[in-house]
Amino acid sequence: MAFNYDQYIRGGKLPHIWCPGCTYGIVFKSILRVIDSMKLNRDDIAMVSGIGCASRLPGYVDFNTLHTTHGRALGFATGLKMAKPDKHVMVVSGDGDATAIGGNHFIHACRRNIDIKVLVFNNFIYGMTGGQYSPTTPSGHLATTMPYGNVDPSFNIPELAKGSGATWVGRGTAYHAAGLDRLITEVMQHKGLSVLEIINACPTTHGRRNKFKSPTDMLVWMKDTFIPAVAFDKLPPEKTAGKFPMGVLYKKEGVPEYCETYYAMAERVRKQKEGRA
Amino acid sequence: MGQIKLLQGNEACAEGALYAGCNFFGGYPITPSTEVAEYLARRLPLIGGVFLQMEDEIAAMAAVIGGALAGCKALTATSGPGFSLKQENMGFAMLTEIPCVIVNVMRGGPSTGVPTGPGQSDIMQCKWGTHGDHPVICLTPAYVQEIFSETVRAFNLSEKYRTPVIIAFDEIVGHMRERIEIPDKGVLPVVNRTKPTCKPSEYLPYDDSKGDVPPMANFFEGYRYHVTGLNHGPDGFPVNASPRIHTDELRLMRKVEANKAEIIKYEEYLLADAEVAVFAYGVSGRSAKTAVEEARAQGIKAGLFRPLTIWPFPEEQVADLSKRVKGIVVPELSLGQIIFEVDRCAKGRCRIEGIYRVDGDPITPAQILAKVKEVK
To answer: CA-nearest residue of chain B to A63?
Structure first.
């Protein structure tokens, strides 16, 4: 039987705002399938976002949802999680939201290893505002604010997350939808700050200005460019030029989670004080 | 009988917050407000509360709103530059009606300015700092005891009206140590937000049909709803180009405007027969009190109007005052900000004279007395 997405979608809130050819819908469905498979109580889930196309996703889903200011979702999410450490707090963000205006919050959330699940929808562009270059726009690509080709070097989001202290880091693509289910499941199961970069396509503001004749071309590009990490690591350098690994890229168990560490400290000092009294 | 303590203003602020039930602090170190954070860093873990030093002022404000949405009573404390950084998220809390308290221990500015000196030049920023039209409640205590009690009141107003409340005092009263009494539990009222009693399926977080302050559900308590900084309908979901935006923004303003009688608090000192009034708050209010006493000793009928609520501005009270006195002297640690509000309310009915100072020292009673004599 086909999966019933409607059970998680708020009545009357569709159609979504995403353009034809946008791949966010694929990721959206993957998230719902995973949450359903994990049998989580939806009262216990908060989904937090900032500003941008991806950040509109929480409005459609029947959880506790918080659509905040540009780049700041992780600050709000940290407040929610610290207040209610037993709840599931997810952040959905875009490349600009998470790594430009929200870059500081991103690295510090990673450093704390607070148990927040961060899904970064990387479509390589500021889509909502019409196609300005972001920290992940490939060099040479055209954007409305790089009309002669992008001269800005770009971030590698998983490397940024790993270097900042995230304890689970992965990359998936909208093309590899089945793999995405597995990756999001791992994200949800990991205790600690987990970052999944999800490669997405924005045909409207990125693809059509950059020699992708159709949305399909962008999916084909994903298929050809992203290689499972296990296979990627075995390839000689000449075969990995222009390619990127996907899958689970980094995982570290046993690192103290921030809320647990904080509340253990609070418990310890409270007992010490009671002991003295 | 409460507890007698010798505390500085910043510590009294932290004590007031704890009295009001504060169990969440998110902040970032900044002079001259840091002692609020340091005090709560010691105290909050002991009561199972959350203390967070975030990566910046913006994240601190965001975390406070997140904590408040999860049901905590949340506080942040900052000063000039940090207050500027918090403004966007403060506007978010105003529009989404999430209660929280923001302390601004004012120093000189703009920019880094005089971090260790007092200032009162953020007072318009307290009102207009975030973009768009928005309701603002801002309290201006002048004594350490008052910082305690006004912090309790700030939390109460915030919870009652579902809106952020600002407490603005200056470096001098923030760092001054005075004897205060912390009342026993139950002596001062403590207000908690009204929660919905309807079924979750019927809950509309921004339903204005039963009053201007809709009940607020905390996250994770079974009422799954959407919170957005976009203008929204009664159900919390975005609306575009709708008459609802206009009526809802009017409602937000009305939460404060229609309740001014409760929100506005002030001290009138020797005003009954005064011919010259001084309008002053914070440390300038303290100097003004001494100046007024000195003037009386010299046979000059002077009095003091000292607002403890600066926003909403005590318009009617100042208008009334302007009908009774020859002039109003307005000392402030800025180059002239709140004087425009006094002038606006006085409508030319009496003389309005400012005393401005931004060199890092307070305005002295002698400066105020000289101006009172000039106006008399």
So the answer is: B224
Return the residue in B76, B131, B224, B235 with the most chain A beta carbons within 10 A, the one to mutate for interface testing: B224
Render B122-145 in DSSP notation, one character per residue: THHHHHHSSSSS---EEE---SHH
User: With contact defined as beta carbons under 8 Å apart, do A21 and A203 qualify?
Assistant: yes
Sheet of strand A244-251: strand arrangement: A226-228, A244-251, A168-173, A194-199, A116-122, A88-94, A45-49, A64-67, B226-228
* pLDDT over 90 percentage in chain A: 97
CATH of the domain at A129: 3.40.50.970
Domain count, chain A: 1
Amino acid type, B367: Q
Q: CA A130 to CA B47: how far, in whole Å? A: 49
Sheet of strand B351-356: strand arrangement? B266-269, B302-307, B276-279, B327-332, B351-356
Measured between CA atoms, how close is B225 to chain A, in angstroms? 5
Closest CA to A196 of A207, A204, A185: A185
Can you give the pLDDT at residue B1?
76
pLDDT of residue A276: 86
ipTM of the complex: 0.98
CB–CB of B229 and A69 under 8 A? yes
CB-CB contact of A68 with A74 (8 Å) = no
| Helical ranges in chain A per DSSP H | 24-37, 73-83, 95-99, 103-112, 157-164, 177-189, 215-225, 229-234, 237-240, 258-276
Q: Cβ(B271)–Cβ(B367) under 8 Å? A: no
- What pLDDT, on the 0 to 100 scale, is given for residue B257? 98
pTM above 0.80, yes or no: yes
**Does A113 lie at the interface with B, CB-CB under 8 angstroms?**
no
3-state secondary structure of A270: helix
d(CA B191, CA B259): 16
pLDDT grade for A277, boundaries at 50, 70 and 90? confident
Rounded Cα distance between B64 and B24, Å, is: 7
Domain of residue A167 covers 5-276
Write the pLDDT tens digit of every residue in A9-55.
998 999 999 999 999 999 999 999 999 999 999 999 999 999 999 99
Residues of chain B below pLDDT 50: none
Res B306: pLDDT? 98
pLDDT score of B348: 98
* Res. A1 pLDDT band, cuts 50 70 90: low
Closest listed residue to residue B357, CA positions, set B164, B53, B118: B118
Q: Does A87 touch chain B (CB under 8 A)?
A: yes
Phi/psi for B221 (5° steps) reads -110, 20
Taking only the tens place, the pLDDT of each residue in B46-77 is 999 999 999 999 999 999 999 999 999 999 99
Which residues in chain B touch residue A75, judged by CB atoms under 8 angstroms apart?
54, 58-63, 66, 89
User: What pLDDT does residue B241 have?
Assistant: 81
Domains of chain B: 3-182 (3.40.50.970), 265-375 (3.40.50.920)
DSSP per-residue letters across B277-306 = EEE--HHHHHHHHHHHHHHHHTT--EEEEE
| Cis? peptide before B110, omega within 30° of 0 | yes
Helices (H) and strands (E) in chain B, counts: 13, 16
Residues of B in contact with A80 (CB under 8 A): 66-67, 69-70, 219
